[in-house]
Amino acid sequence: MNFTIEDAERLLREYTKNDFLLKHAFSVKAAMEKYSEIFNGDKEKWGIAGLLHDFDYEKFPDDHPYKGAEILRKMGVDEDIVKAILSHASYTGVPRETDMARALFAIDELTGLILAVSFVMPDKSIKSVKVKSVKKKLKDKAFAKKVNREEIYQGVEELGVDLTSHIETVLNAMKEISDIIEGKSS
Fold it and tell me: 72 and 82 in contact (C-beta within 8 Å)?
């Protein structure tokens, strides 16, 4: 693979200016890299998929993730990464056939919920978020209404992991990049 994680970050920053979308992308990347270790996947590939899964959203919201897939294919990005990105959006109908694709789907909505939970912490720090708090807010449909809870549950089932351990894995990955998430460096 000639397309590197550095190439992916440059591409992300070229297409995405929204701070929340950037934090989301880096959160998904961190969790994908963590899951690559669990599933013996290629850490760089999984990180690229996480970083770029929504890179086209800001510029092409009506054509997401199709436009992104088109751009990535033209750049020669490995097809398994492109398919994982396409399959993270259920409406594409692209099946999630790999651990990388299933992990991306399982992680995507959960990172949004965890970020929202961090915003309501007294210190607004991701480091203060606990698994218990995330599980409580997951049940509260009035909180972070845009988070698709059904997809979180479906993702956990497809990935074959326990909900609590999944939240813990994703949360811990996000805590490792707290400086980026909290805007201290990105």
Answer: yes
Long-range Cβ contact pairs of 130-138 (< 8 A, separation 24 or more): 131/164, 131/167, 131/168, 131/171, 134/110, 134/167, 134/171, 135/163, 135/164, 135/167, 137/113, 138/113, 138/167
Q: Alpha-carbon distance 128 to 136, whole Å?
A: 15
Write the pLDDT tens digit of every residue in 129-143: 999 999 999 999 999
pTM for the full predicted model: 0.96
* CATH value of 5-179 in 1.10.3210, 3.90.580, 3.40.50, 1.20.58: 1.10.3210
Q: Where are the domains of the chain?
A: 5-179
